[in-house]
Amino acid sequence: MGGRRGRDRGLHRRRRASRAGALTLVVLLVAAGLAGYAARRHPDLLVAAGVRAGAPAAGPARPAMTRPAAPPVPAAGRVPPGISYPARGTGAFRTATGVGAVAGRSGELLRYRVAVEDGIGNVDVERFAREVAVTLADPRGWTGDGRWRLQRVGRDDPADFTVLLTTPVTRGRLCADTTDRYTSCRNGDQVVINVARWVHGVPHFPDLGRYRQYLLNHEVGHRLGQGHELCPRAGGPAPVMEQQTLGLHGCTPNAWPLVDGAPHSGPSGQYDDPIPAED
Q: What is the pLDDT at residue 157?
């Protein structure tokens, strides 16, 4: 989410608060008539992340349904499986292999990879990479005003930065702030997305999908050289570079750098909001 003055603007400020205990969320959604489910994994050690290699984590177990009186399960494919994760993953990553089209009509071209930490369950890395690419290619995003072009590349291609979906403990290590397991950050060429926020969002951002778009745009914005901003007008949309994960300060939630077709920003600065210790 951010950094203290004098350090990388993508690193979050250190807080006295720390997460109280490991949080594990397991949501099991079993599609009616579906015999089984398998997700391809692409084991890969992400050298840029400075993490050790490890064997791919086994997928979560699927216990049998024990509540016959529950409402009918929606048809196969209509409800995605829930994401499960430990507080600490393996530290190794599987990287998406797909290559996307260049998003944006003009400006500097940056290429990025997408990777998911082993230990995070029910996240297909290729599907997650497509979700990242859709957000970063949206005309309301960083490629919408001609300053930047972005392209998703595979694990063996040269890249300017990597979007990482990580467990909370790994987030703390990659962001160089082990006391914070709540927020996300950018550190160097790593855009670190905390799976806890990807799963739970924040209370004051009622639309989880919209929050995820904000989260990606905010942290990638740091990689593009953007610093934190303040709410410019009470009741108006927050700048995407406001630390909306921690508070809105009179603004309304906003996921995009462009609002009504024009860049939307606020005064440079950041609020002294506390970082929650747990979800």
A: 95
Chain segment 170-217, per-residue pLDDT in tens: 999 999 999 999 999 999 999 999 999 999 999 999 999 999 999 999
Output the pLDDT for position 174.
98
Which phi and psi angles does 4 have, rounded to 5°? Answer: -75, 160
d(CA 186, CA 2): 7
Burial class (CB in 10 A: 0-12, 13-18, 19+), 164: buried
Quick one: three-class SS letters along the chain?
CCCCCCCCCCCCCCCCCCCCCCCCCCCCCCCECCCCCCCCCCEECCHHHCCCCCCCCCCCCCCCCCCCCCCCCCECCCCCCCCECCCCCCCCEEECCCCCCCECCCCEEEEEEEEEECCCECCCHHHHHHHHHHHHHCCCCCCCCCCEEEEECCCCCCCCEEEEEECHHHHHHHCCCCCCCCCCEEECCEEEEEHHHHHHCCCCCCCHHHHHHHHHHHHHHHHCCCCCECCCCCCCECCCCCCCCCCCCCCECCCCCEECCEECCCCECCCCCCCCCCC
Instruction: Give bridge partners of residue 121 from the DSSP assignment.
Output: 84
CA distance linking residue 187 with residue 166, whole number of Å: 13
The answer for residues whose C-beta is within 8 angstroms of residue 212's C-beta and 6 or more apart is: 131, 135, 198, 201
Separation of alpha carbons 19 and 172, rounded Å: 11
Predicted confidence (pLDDT) per residue in 30-48, tens digit? 233 333 333 333 334 343 4
Residues of the chain with pLDDT under 70: 1-81, 278-279
pTM (two decimals):
0.74
